[in-house]
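Renewal narrative, Specific Aim 1. Our central claim is that a sequence can be written position by position from structural information alone. The example that follows is taken directly from our test logs and has not been curated for this report. It begins with the structure tokens describing the chain, in the order in which they were read.
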């Protein structure tokens, strides 16, 4: 019940952020959840991530930086 409630509230908050906020920041934070979930898995449950997961995290972070810098120059 709690997961459904908080998941629904999170979706409503994300929808509002796309409507009212900066789309690039909202998208970057949305993809950052994958990175944080992976790191919490390592810290809390001693999960071991394969090299492909580290590569995916690097691509997410690199993409977020590139998009943020390119939109900053456009403003």
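The sequence written for that structure reads:
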């Amino acid at each position: 019940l709690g997961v459904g409630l908080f998941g629904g509230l999170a979706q409503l908050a994300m929808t509002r952020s796309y409507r009212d906020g900066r789309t690039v920041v909202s998208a970057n934070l949305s993809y950052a959840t994958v990175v944080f979930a992976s790191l919490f898995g390592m810290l809390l449950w001693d999960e071991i991530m394969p090299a492909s997961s580290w590569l995916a995290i690097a691509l997410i972070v690199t993409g977020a930086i590139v998009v943020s810098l390119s939109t900053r120059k456009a403003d």
